[in-house]
Design a protein that fits this description.
The structure is a single chain. The strands form three sheets. A seven-stranded mixed β-sheet has the order 10-9-8-11-12-14-13, sandwiched between helices. It is built from eight helices and 14 strands. It has two domains: about 1-100, Alpha-Beta Plaits (2-Layer Sandwich), CATH 3.30.70; about 145-290, 3-Layer(aba) Sandwich (Rossmann fold), CATH 3.40.50. Strand 5 and strand 6 (about 110-115) form a beta hairpin. The chain has helices at about 15-25, 65-75, 95-100, 145-155, 170-180, 190-205, 235-245, 265-270; strands at about 1-10, 30-35, 55-60, 85-90, 105-110, 110-115, 125-130, 160-165, 185, 210-215, 225-230, 245-260, 275-280, 285-290. It is about 25% helix and about 30% strand. About 45% of the residues are buried. Helix 4 (about 145-155) runs parallel beside helix 5 and helix 7 runs parallel beside helix 8 (about 265-270). With about 300 residues, the chain is an alpha/beta fold. The chain binds S-adenosylmethionine (SAM). S-adenosylmethionine binds near residues 138, 171, 193 and 231.
Length: about 300
């Protein structure tokens, strides 16, 4: 299995804070090395000498959209520029053991827990979704996923249909079903995400009749009670005219993957069909939620 890592050249004083930041962004592990121990970057004239810097390394699963990670880091460092960094693919099975020690059961809202398969759920009577980091995005560690999970937990999904647009690992579709939804449709433009969703559904004993996975081009439009989409602001804005007809009048929508400064643009793009409001903000990200209004 391959991984993707981001190496940031940072001031050693920032290491602890940035480690938390990378973990919050979904890193499976964070390690660091003093630049003088293992020089990775050539010193340039007029720049801070290497030995005053630390190389912080955040390791992510291969399909993590690194543009989400770098956008979030840019936001974190703003108004200062993002320090010098590089993103690279890593082939190293030893990392698997590294992150196994760092991925813990997590609670979202009142009822929902995401638990790795190698640990017993701390609350056996809670709604426990068993999930391990894999090739598709969506473990619950990223704030954009976490906010959607909290939103789903806060809804009464009993007997409702849910569409998870941009399903990644299928975490939101599977959580919806475990929280009582009648049926879920999971859509992604990455075939690997659809495979991961099917595998994760099986691991959670989801009835195959309740979950259907589609590439966007193979999905014949239907209407749903609830739509959740954790993609980036730009695709969400482009998709607005396509997603709007999928939701029944008075149906619910939650949109995530949006940076604070992009929220107004997303609200405006969906305004012809939805009254959207801030549901939650976390680490510079926003989750918008609302209902479909009657249009004439
Ligand atoms: C940030 S991940 C979210 C995964 C998961 N739903 C979660 O909340 O963790 C976004 C997913 O959307 C998919 N995606 C991006 N643009 C898309 C589009 N235009 N149509 C369908 N899927 C898309 C990506 O392949 C990726 O799996």
């Amino acid at each position: 299995m391959s991984w993707v890592q981001i190496k940031l050249e940072v001031n050693p004083k920032m290491v602890d804070e940035l480690e938390d930041q990378l973990l919050a962004l979904g890193a499976c592990s964070v390690t660091y090395e003093d630049a003088q121990d293992k020089p990775v970057y050539e010193p340039k004239l007029g720049t801070t000498p290497l030995w005053e810097k630390t190389i912080l390394i955040g390791l992510f699963t291969a399909n993590t959209p690194m543009e989400l990670v770098t956008a979030s880091l840019e936001n974190y460092f703003s108004p200062e520029p993002l320090p010098s960094y590089r993103v690279e693919i890593v082939e190293d099975k030893d990392w698997e053991r590294e992150w196994m020690g760092q991925y813990h059961p997590m609670q979202f809202g009142e009822r929902l827990w995401i638990c790795p398969s190698w640990l017993e759920p701390p609350q056996p009577n809670a709604v426990n979704l068993r999930l391990d980091p894999g090739l598709a995005f969506g473990t619950g560690t990223h704030p954009t996923t976490a906010m959607c999970l909290t939103w789903l937990d806060a809804q009464n999904l009993n007997k409702l249909d849910v569409i998870d647009y941009g399903c990644g690992s299928g975490i939101l579709a599977i959580a919806s079903l475990l929280l009582g939804a009648k049926q879920a449709i999971a859509i992604d433009n990455d075939p690997q995400a659809l495979q991961a969703t099917a595998d994760n559904a099986q691991r959670n004993h989801i009835n195959p009749q309740q979950l259907h996975v589609y590439l966007p081009e193979n999905f014949s439009n239907t209407t749903t009670d609830v739509l959740v989409a954790n993609i980036l602001a730009k695709p969400l804005i482009d998709l607005a005219p396509k997603l709007a007809p999928l939701v029944k009048t008075d149906g619910l929508i939650a949109l995530s993957g949006i940076l604070m400064e992009q929220a107004d643009q997303v609200i405006a793009a969906y305004a012809p069909w939805f009254s959207l409001d801030y549901f939650k903000t976390q680490d510079g990200w926003v989750c918008l939620a609302g209902r479909k209004i009657a249009t004439h």
